[in-house]
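Field guide to reading this record: the first block holds the primary sequence, the second block holds the structure written as discrete tokens, and the final block holds curator observations. Each block starts with its own label. This record concerns Kynureninase, catalogued under organism Mammaliicoccus stepanovicii.

BLOCK 1 — SEQUENCE
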Amino acid sequence: MEYNFQVDKEFAQDLDKQDKLNHIRDRFYVKDDEIYMDGNSLGLASKDAEESLLTMLDVWKNEGIKLWNIEQGKYYEYARRLGKDMAGLIGANPDEVITVGSTTSNIHQAISTLYKPTHDRYKILVDDLNFPTDRYAVDSQVRLHGYEVSEAVKVVKSADGIFIDEEAVIEAMTDDVALILLPTVLYRSAQVLDMEKLTKAAHARGILIGWDLCHAIGAIEMNFSTFEPDFAVWCTYKYLSGGPGSTAGLYINKKHFDKSPGLTGWFGNKDETQFQLLHEFDHQQDASGWQIGTPNLLSMAPLAGSLNIFKEVGMSRIREKSLHITAYMMYLIDEKLNQYGYKVENAREDSRRGGHVCLTHDEGYRISQALRDKGVVPDYREPNVIRLAPVALYNTYEEVYRVIEILEEIVKEDIYKDYSTKRHTVI
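BLOCK 2 — STRUCTURE
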């Protein structure tokens, strides 16, 4: 889409006045002396999430064990209820989504269920740009089946280390591939892969395919009903602002409901026989059957509040502002920062860009440290990427303008040279 931006601060202020989501910012805990640009790593706390968590604590304090039976079994059904709300964000059926586990444990759960290698079809296809935990899980799963990683994990390599070539992925869908796991949005470059195209290509070749939505859910619109992948996994603490380590999400396509979960546990048992405590698993044949242990209510409660905001605002409006404000950020980078060695390394097209801007600089690490001391919270990724996420629900255009000013100042005045290149644990 063509955007008509201007380079002055007053233009940013005018954009904020016109922003139809500007009032939602008041429902988040935004600090007056800080510009938070790391919502793609950990979303800010909302007042809705706080209220939901405090309500859960009150229920625990007042009800004890009785909490499982109050409000028509609300808390016993909590994982399903939140799963239903998240299903709306990806265009899935409510019974195909459950709130459970972590991204990594859910990858293990899905692959252990669906990966049934044969003599001729035994490989798992991955890319070399995905977040490492996905690869760790894949490697672990093939080892559990008695394979060497080098023989059973097929890697599609990026030609430039920035983007994934979708045609190369399709070309790699050979007859020996049993299953594919790919990211929907790349965590470094924010590239959006064409899930529908790749899913249909996989299915046409008899290959199962799953998607990592960690940097996609809550940032881009998706409609699984149009192409029906086999599974998907995601965390809930980034754009969904469910809180640090909040319980993750798992999608299992309904065509797989008859399959027994690879990892079984008592909360995946049918409700009718769960408390009979039988020693034979009685599989609940919907996504809730892939639960293992008792739901982590305190890790789920903030997500319930956050999802209320998403239901109220709607993903179409969120995506519209996200595309506009990231385009504005890229415009300012082009106009003000290119001469200082900064470069945008994400796709410019709206359809191929996620919710953050991938800004690179040879001194990216030291610049990211200087940003923090200047009151800006960015995210750094090796080897030289400063990720900046102006989140539609709580960041403003004036904040974007100010961040660009600070980035210019840090290099123009050599401020970054005051910082060490020694890496911290979390940056």
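BLOCK 3 — OBSERVATIONS
The CA atoms of residues 127 and 156 lie 5 Å apart.
The chain has 13 helices and 13 strands.
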